[in-house]
Amino acid sequence: MRRKLAAGNWKMNGTRDALAELTILADMIGEGAQDVVICPPATLIVPAVEATSGTGMRIGAQDCHSAPSGAHTGDIAAEMIADAGGTHVIVGHSERRADHGETDAMVHAKTEAAWAAGLTAILCIGESLDQREAGKTLDVIGAQLAQSVPDAATPDNLVIAYEPIWAIGTGKVATLDQIVEVHDFIRETLVKRFGGAGAAFSLLYGGSVKAANAAEIFTAENVDGALVGGASLKAADFAPIVSALAHA
Ligand code: PEP
Questions:
Q1: Could you tell me the sign of the dihedral formed by the alpha carbons of 161, 165, 169, 173, in that order?
Q2: Cα dist. 162→168, 181, 247 in Å?
């Protein structure tokens, strides 16, 4: 059985007032909290861990540096995330790749740093609209998997999120056929590389997931959950996605 996961990426949104949403969410989803990880801004990791204590919900970060410590102004190390009570870290989000020039090699190094701190990495891959229109989607996904996923990956330390860049924050959702094609390809690639373990990695879809489309997306055999941006900010929007996953 693969582990289901509804991961919320709050991006650069939220001050302490937003923590109330976590309490509301926990009340709305009950046992579904076991399948939830919320990644707030780094400033909210500690209070978010406190606010969700005892609920089963877990807290993660949106990025980490590949080094354990040092002269990297503004960055945070994976060990700091773990020390703050975080259990997961998103690596390779397309906004990090675009805003900070992160390459697959850097994402590979960040993933290993996450593991060294005992964190589970949520590694994001996905094609641009130009790449899709040029018919290169599977080539891009294959190359990202080959170059960013380290050999020591296991279903316990790595979750892969397929996020077509053109669907993030745009309201455009990939069609079910597009999602199935890419998720089946990721699964095949992982099985070729990791054997039986490849079948056990959790694969998330991300890109404008919301209450209205989550249930259909979760019908895909190789979709084990979602990485959700905008619709994770409010409990009332995120709870139905968690519930759709629980019933998938
Ligand atoms: C994301 O931030 O990873 C994301 C998928 O955002 P949104 O759900 O807003 O498209």
A1: negative
A2: 11, 11, 21
Identify whether the C-beta of residue 9 lies closer than 8 Å to the C-beta of residue 39: yes
Determine the distance separating the centroid of ligand 1 and the alpha carbon of 31, expressed in angstroms: 24
- Alpha carbon distance 4, 130 (integer Å): 31
Tokens read off for 153: 């990956």
Q: Are 121 and 88 in contact (CB under 8 A)?
A: yes
pTM of the model: 0.97
Tokens standing for residue 184: 């089946």
Count of other CB atoms within 10 angstroms of residue 102: 20
Residue 62 contacts residue 42 (beta carbons within 8 Å): yes
Mutate to test the pocket of ligand 1, among 228, 232, 237 (most ligand atoms within 8 A of CB): 228
As a whole number of angstroms, the distance between CA 142 and CA 189 comes to: 7
In angstroms, the CA 149 to CA 13 distance is 28
From the CA of 210, how far away is ligand 1's center (Å)?
10
H-helix or E-strand containing 158? Answer: strand 158-162
pLDDT in tens, the chain (248 residues): 799 999 999 999 999 999 999 999 999 999 999 999 999 999 999 999 999 999 999 999 999 999 999 999 999 999 999 999 999 999 999 999 999 999 999 999 999 999 999 999 999 999 999 999 999 999 999 999 999 999 999 999 999 999 999 999 888 889 999 999 999 999 999 999 999 999 999 999 999 999 999 999 999 999 999 999 999 999 999 999 999 999 99
Asked if 231 and 209 touch (Cβ cutoff 8 Å), the reply is: yes
